[in-house]
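re: that complex we talked abt at group meeting.

here r the seqs, copy pasted straight from the sheet so there may be weird spacing, ignore it
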Amino acid sequence: MTQEEHGPRRAAMAALALVVGILGALVPVRAAGPQRPSPAPSAESDGQYGNPSDLDDYIAEMTSPERDAWQKPDQVVAALGLKKGETACDIGSGPGYFTLRLARAVGFGGFVYAVDVEARMLQALRERLERARVRNVAPVLAVSDDPLLPPGVCDVVLVVDTYHHFPDRAGYLKRLRRSLKPKGRIVNIDYQRRPTPIGPPLDHRVARATFLTEAKGAGLSLVAEPTFLPYQYFLILAAK
Ligand SMILES: C[S@@+](CC[C@H](N)C(=O)[O-])C[C@H]1O[C@@H](n2cnc3c(N)ncnc32)[C@H](O)[C@@H]1O
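got the structure back, here u go
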């Protein structure tokens, strides 16, 4: 290549570098790791139902294997003590981070209701179920104040990072209680109301004590409390 050919080429490269630089400055930088937490980013409620408006990103975060380090999903599901053939009800299932594990825990003879109000979450769940060839899960498109579950079907109701989204929390707990089998349990896992490296803003969180007061009002009492999760309380309740 001659000197004359180098000139225009260099100019073109410089222009390209300038465009890339300008675009880079315009695109918002997404903070990595704990600063933009998964699965509850700080801008959590700029979309519908307490979700961020960028649902694709949110779904990717919620199902990311990086979440396993602190969410300990297999340990959580083991602590639920589900038996083969039982029915689990995953309330606010999102794209099914817990749902698929619950489906495995109850086996082919068992069943999972995966309840969410956001149709796109359930669409993402259906795609994951299809890829994993899981057939013992029914996605349920619910309404904000009602999971729309039949009465008396759940051995375990699991609510993870969702309780603080319910518009009428006490009323919702009563509906969940009606969906329980006689010896069923309701499990609530949600962020402690103290600063944690991940999780929604403090004013979106429901303190453990507040939840327990609301649960008592709905006729539920605490029967166990595993303590291995670093940022969330893990409360197992039964009907009184
Ligand atoms: C923080 S995500 C948690 C998802 C899932 N439990 C997990 O741990 O991966 C909260 C989910 O609750 C759903 N949600 C919000 N309000 C709800 C309501 N009133 N009833 C049922 N689901 C709700 C949202 O659409 C979202 O999928």
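couple things i noticed - The pocket of S-adenosylmethionine is lined by residues 39-40, 49-51, 62, 91-94, 97-98, 115-118, 121, 142, 144, 160-162, 165-166 (CB under 6 Å). The domain at 67-239 is CATH 3.40.50.150 (Rossmann fold).
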